[in-house]
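Students often ask why we bother predicting the structure of a whole assembly rather than each chain alone. The short answer is interfaces. A chain on its own may look different once its partners are present, and contacts between molecules only exist in the joint model. In this exercise we take two input lines together and write out one structure for the complete complex. Read the inputs first and try to guess which parts will touch.
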Amino acid sequence: VTTSIAELDTLVEQAQAAAPAVARASDATRAGWLRSLASKLEEHSEELVRIATEETHLDVNRLTGEVNRTTGQLRLFADAIIEGSYLEATIDHANPATGTPDLRRVLLPIGPVAVFAGSNFPFAFSVAGGDTASALAVGCPVIVKAHSGHLRLSERTAEIVTLALQEEGAPAGTFALVSGRDVGSALVQHPGIRAASFTGSVGGGRALFDLAAARPDPIPFYGELGSINPTVLTRAAIEARGVELASGLAISFTQGIGQFCTKPGVVFIPDDSGFESLLVDAVSERPGGQLLTERIATAYPEGLRAVSADPDVTVVYGRVDQGGGDSDAEPVVLATSAEAVRTRPETLLAETFGPTTLLVRYSSAPALHAALSQTPGSLTATVHAEPSDDIEELVDLLSARAGRVLFKGWPTGVAVTWSQNHGGPWPSTTSIHTSVGVSAMRRFQRPIVFQDAPATVLPPSLLESNPLQIPRRLDGGLKLQG
Amino acid sequence: VTTSIAELDTLVEQAQAAAPAVARASDATRAGWLRSLASKLEEHSEELVRIATEETHLDVNRLTGEVNRTTGQLRLFADAIIEGSYLEATIDHANPATGTPDLRRVLLPIGPVAVFAGSNFPFAFSVAGGDTASALAVGCPVIVKAHSGHLRLSERTAEIVTLALQEEGAPAGTFALVSGRDVGSALVQHPGIRAASFTGSVGGGRALFDLAAARPDPIPFYGELGSINPTVLTRAAIEARGVELASGLAISFTQGIGQFCTKPGVVFIPDDSGFESLLVDAVSERPGGQLLTERIATAYPEGLRAVSADPDVTVVYGRVDQGGGDSDAEPVVLATSAEAVRTRPETLLAETFGPTTLLVRYSSAPALHAALSQTPGSLTATVHAEPSDDIEELVDLLSARAGRVLFKGWPTGVAVTWSQNHGGPWPSTTSIHTSVGVSAMRRFQRPIVFQDAPATVLPPSLLESNPLQIPRRLDGGLKLQG
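Now the answer. The structure tokens for the assembled complex follow.
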């Protein structure tokens, strides 16, 4: 079903009409919405996972885990708004000596938010995913643009969200789902929308980013776009645990059929380390599988061909010429040199969605650093080293290029916690904010300060008596309560 | 002196080269830079104020006060980075039960920052102003684009900044000044610049915003653009203290010759309240004065003519046909109806820099609210009411349109404190951040998380022992120290 522009207008008007009541709902009330939604998703988990397997070709275990991540996320955000730090309540009492007035700052919900769902996480980055949870948590109505890759699941999830919100007494207009290609452009340009979030390709994200920025009144556009997630293995690490690293890498770049934004897409390895044959052994045990959508299935062999057309690229494992369409995508390992990456980063480091990774052989630390310095911004960067390795410069290089730097394990798998950061330099993210973890909520808040306000107009967070018992900063000093 | 593009390239390269060392400098070291700079500005205050009076036509008292605000701002930011909350250090220890890794989040400096100085605050929003202080505080090199309205002052201030940083041992490249119109466009588009801040007109700000957004790698652009700062007076307030309100308003819209971004540019008053004659009396005691630049002097009578050309606008005080050029700008009070504002907000609510304000007569609360709902985003909104007034709906309307809502006093005058917010909905600001107050620093930081990192690569803020003794969130709980 495609939403017409007239229908979209009505839905945005309803969101705008609901916004003041959603903003005024207490933290306890909104926490109730999120918890109720989490319970409802759990209740319907089996049905939802069944629809998702049919639409996305992802397996039941993976999808069931994703539902749990999604409900855990909703409950974490409920806890976080009750804790109250997310309001950044800050009070400076009047100082007659300096003539400064009484100033009380808090973060307010920004208003109706447009959420563009991703293809690859039909739960965690879709209708009831992290962006929706973030916006509802801080008090913003949400309009989700469904991903065309899982429309039935989107509609069923939206029914569940709507029912949960209704049962909890949330205002009509708090949530809506729209679908259709044109409706996406109209949504991000709609005067009633105050912020937008997006998970997807660099091309699609850039187009929407440009529309958001070109508005008469530009709005924040939180895009999570492509990411190649550089990984570095030192010689000492391969000597110490080469088999384990090969096995971990093989799982990481092939799981979810290589369709994670955190897939390790480029792996720097020392020359003649023997790692390639270890990886070939490990990958040979990994299954392929059907990709999420026809478009991704077509793009996968195209991407493989584009990279392997480079004269300095060799195929280490698998077939570049693959079927596309309904056939399973097979794992492929390519290899090249650090010098080739340094000179042709655009060609060699283009993101290829699917079960492939590019090994980059380096002969020396300077050669490695020179290639890394041409690597675009990523969500993650990983280094596997031994205590004997001097990695200080390497860590600086990776920190400058990523929002999460790992020293163990693999970047696929993103824990939803207070400290998590899922956002890195362009193009991996279009902002200085995260889309996963508690601080993702900050994207949909704006600051306001009340000057010399009577208590009757102040929100509870700013009342002298601190009825919410939240952490606040009083006259410059952080207080946990009171 | 105009900076050439070749010189700009060299300066940005130097800033990029300095960035890692500036980022690595300890909070105590950077606090030392800011404090030393504050002391140096005080030492040279008389000389700087003398140059500023010559270039800006602002008076000595105002300018001396502004130097104090600027040095106070530098010292407040020094205190804030020592306090350490600005790092948002957050640690989630590994949880073997759930399989989550050890995650440690902190905010890093974003990299070299371009600061576009404003015309109207030659100290507080210029070379050593709030944007420069914010960027240096968090560890970013700064390149300031001087405002053409006070070039000699900019150069002299830059010498003092450079000397202070040199004496404190800051890396070469930490700070630079550039000037010239073309250099501004080149600066915001330069690949080495990671964020930009701007104080000025909607037209100039929008042009730079568009350039920042159109980059191959868009960067955050923190513009503080036009603002009309709606003010509402209730009948009860005028009856209780009309003379005091008239006097306060007259001072607020004429001080600094009406060249504050927080000037109350539109004042809603009840029909037949008698306030207009009180205001005329009060304004008649207020001097005019020479405007900051020739361009502003030309634009002032143009702006007056544009608004007063509306058939529903009358001149309550002063002359619309004024000289421009070197002659003093004289105060002007215009008046219209709420209905006219509701139907023609673009014409009537255009910002006019200079000593003028527009009175808007309202006949009822609905008429007032209808006009207010057409008012564009502003830095501030002010309401003067009595306890007998029901202002709940009014406060909601104003809160939706401003970043600071005042209930006493006048919006000109912005205290620099922990809680201050100087930023409102578009066009007053291009982001969800403030340009004044401690949280202005957040504009130039980006989050990063270290996963399972050895202590040897962690910044001090994330070490288990908390050597900086800063507030941190540990496993979800906020701790003041330790």
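Check your guess against this: The longest helix of chain A spans residues 60-83.
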